[in-house]
Amino acid sequence: xxxxxxxxxxxxxxxxxxxxxxxxxxxxxxxxxxxxxxxxxxxxxxxxxxxxxxxxxxxxxxxxxxxxxxxxxxxxxxxxxxxxxxxxxxxxxxxxxxxxxxxxxxxxxxxxxxxxxxxxxxxxxxxxxxxxxxxxxxxxxxxxxxxxxxxxxxxxxxxxxxxxxxxxxxxxxxxxxxxxxxxxxxxxxxxxxxxxxxxxxxxxxxxxxxxxxxxxxxxxxxxxxxxxxxxxxxxxxxxxxxxxxxxxxxxxxxxxxxxxxxxxxxxxxxxxxxxxxxxxxxxxxxxxxxxxxxxxxxxxxxxxxxxxxxxxxxxxxxxxxxxxxxxxxxxxxxxxxxxxxxxxxxxxxxxxxxxxxxxxxxxxxxxxxxxxxxxxxxxxxxxxxxxxxxxxxxxxxxxxxxxxxxxxxxxxxxxxxxxxxxxxxxxxxxxxxxxxxxxxxxxxxxxxxxxxxxxxxxxxxxxxxxxxxxxxx
Length: 473
Description:
By secondary structure, the protein is an alpha/beta fold. It has 18 helices and 19 strands.
């Protein structure tokens, strides 16, 4: 983080602007809207500066910059078209440990002006640290269209109640739950309809007659790792939750989107290292929900595809705990797409099977014959450890040893790796390239298309499909 975003109260604070042209004028307008007391020095001034001086909004000094003009100022802006003057302002301000902004010269900026979305008292600031101002402006335009105008009046209303709520409801968590209820109530709709008196009365009633917060569990699929594959509903519930119970498969980038003050509990399982037994996770969800918490059970991929989401919901049912399920992009679909492998294709595969590489608790084997049919794609979750066994059983059941395979490590993430080869090479490729979890095995003729359809990240680390499948046999 190159700059720390701060909101500074500038009401009646002294600020110096060096420059009197159009660029200085834009900065001055922003500072005046924040209540700053402006001093502007320049040999010439735009007409609006002169008007502001007549209105008592700015003091103009007709002349050139001198270091003593910095005395007593909180901020200084260098906004001339003379690089030497701007550099002199920067040097003098830096020598005094003052915050200085040099327009269009990011290395000479101790602070920067962000793009601002104003829904006062709600303010949103966006900055690219001066590297891509047009991109920052486009982001601001998109957010402007998304954020309703009633946010300002709503913030003003709840601001008037803040001290009352603090006096009547003790504890940060309890107060936050109260405000969550307010923002999910008809108070918001009244403000949106400009029925401010009704909204105020409704909020007063909620404060005098508080309702106990019922716990709820959100079972949410986080997808294979790319945060842009999250659904809108998943993101909304991640932001609402009091507690997030998550797995190792949830990427750090997705965890960054969790509400900052939410409690985070990792119950992840890794191959050979089941850190939290499933029954303990089930009980944890129950205990948190019965304590009135909104719990987000965040799982990699989709919670109902090898995610044990069904088991966890079954554990909630005897306790009458409310729940929601948010599907996610399962690893098979997400990782294969990012690897450039269509799971079905009219010329190569008319069906697809999703299976797990973990053995069943009773030790019984899956139906290897049904999994060994040609013109079918087989996607194996959690198959690295049993890769040699999977390879042997599929070949023994009739799948050609030359069937194309792909191992996708960290699919959809920046560090994605793809290793391709044949079924006969499966176990040796995993050892040779030291592949680790999370990884997905894709077995089938569609893998031969990967060389042409690959689009994300680095090229695969092996390439054995320059010849046709029939030639490899």
